[in-house]
Amino acid sequence: MGKIKLGCLILMISAISGNTAKAGGLLTNTNQNIAWNRNMARDGVIAIDGVYSNPAGVAFMSKGLHLSFNFQNVYQTRTIESGINVPSLQGTPFYQPFKLNGGNENGVKTFKGEASVPIVPSFQAALNYDKWGFQASFALTGGGGKGTFNDGLGSFERQVAMIPALLYSQGITSSTPSYGVSSYVNGKQYVYGIQFGTTYKINEHMAVYGGFRFNYIWNNYEGNIINISANIDGNNENLYAYFGDKATAYNIQAAAATMMANEATDEQTKAKYKAIAAQYAAGAAKMDATKEQFADKYLDCTQRGWGITPVIGFDYKNGKWNFGTRLEFTTHLNIENHTKRDDTGLFQDGVNTPNDLPGIFTVGGQYAVLPSLRVMASYHFFFDKDAQMAGGKQKLLSGNTKEYLAGAEWDLTKHIMVSAGVQSTRYGLGDGSYLNDISFSTSSYSIGFGAKIRVAKKASLNVAYFWTNYEKFNKSYSTSISGVTAECTDNFTRTNKVLGVGLDIDL
User: Fold this and answer.
1) What is the rounded CA–CA span in Å between residue 319 and residue 90?
2) How far apart are the first and last CA of the chain?
3) pTM for this prediction
4) Which residues pair with 195 in a beta bridge?
5) Is 39 helix (H, G, I), strand (E, B) or coil?
6) CA nearest to 95, candidates 489, 487, 479
7) How far apart are CA 42 and CA 292, in angstroms?
8) Could you tell me which of 249, 341, 247 has the C-alpha nearest to residue 294?
9) Ranges of the chain with pLDDT below 70
10) Is the Cβ–Cβ distance between 380 and 24 less than 8 Å?
11) In the chain, what are the helix, strand and coil shares in percent, each to the nearest 5?
12) Of 33, 121, 28, residue with least CA distance to 73
């Protein structure tokens, strides 16, 4: 029987999520303050959330200490409609293998994962003097939660789906071919960022910023592929047990033939039974090897690493206008495996892989249409193709991520301000080779709204809600499974909803 490679659990390690609580680039969280949630175009705004989005502009805030505490609740779903056709098997029950285990009439099966983050915290602080200012912040700059696929993924079920055809090719048949598998994938990813920086107010119009962010990454991936079965002669058989029983039967027959050889009184009979014993022993070895292909497989791997992000910024303020810009340099990260169990053989303990965070360039502006009404716009450029990833995955991108943002704020009263914003994110995904079913994000647009309410003389409450609408991305490709060419399709889509509340304090 041809070998069936079932070590595809590797796909769970590919950035699960790449970022379960993310908004922004492929590997970066930009939603680090509730003010951003209600109005994403913050790169030219002078406010405490500028510690992340416009750090130089914070220099124009009043003298004293400014604090911001933020908490967000995030919920995402990821849906992949996966299909597989085997051209060489057209006209047989094995042409569209997913039909043998829950696929629709077109041979497409839906896999859905959920990612929830009950609380994503962040904190910003700024202490301003006449010309100098000092800042600090903490946030999850990437990741921020967990993603779970309770029914596995199409990428590794495709290989299991080929088993009935491979059994048939070996003369193991069924009038009702089918297969079964239990699989599970759970991944957690957290990139903790602690940022420190200094501002200098050159004059009443210009300020500059210099600082750095220390990033610590912690990932954990758990998964399994268990209970692989197929219908044989009308019965659903656990294949590990089925071929194990075959091996046992061959071993018994080999032992019986060996005993007959030992009891034989002539050399011809002895040789005959020795040959039979050897044939049965070879059959047992073959069944044992086949059995191992269907053994339950588990993975439990934690990854850790760290890196430094230099950040610089500039702000220009003149009358009703304000302009801000910042540059975050690419963060070079290597993450090291700390593996408790790896039946795939792909995550050796102590191995390091690159996992850079891409650099970011932002520019934004704000204009006061009225004393109570402000409009703003921003542009983000992420240097994704300069960020090294495992296997050089970044080379599969056709271009870098670009974002276009706009928003408005309106002071209803001295105590209540409402705002709303939109963001369009365009990824350079090319033909989709960069995407896989555990790690994907598609171009999207986001809408957010909320309010800032003064609850005390020096304290304001921020509340906001935003959601992201993702485009569908269709990926088609050919692959070889156990030496057989298969035509595969994946249709990717996601949902993303975030509710946040925060408290700003000015002392």
Assistant:
1) 71
2) 74
3) 0.85
4) 137, 213
5) coil
6) 487
7) 56
8) 247
9) 1-27, 143-146, 438-439
10) yes
11) 20, 55, 25
12) 121
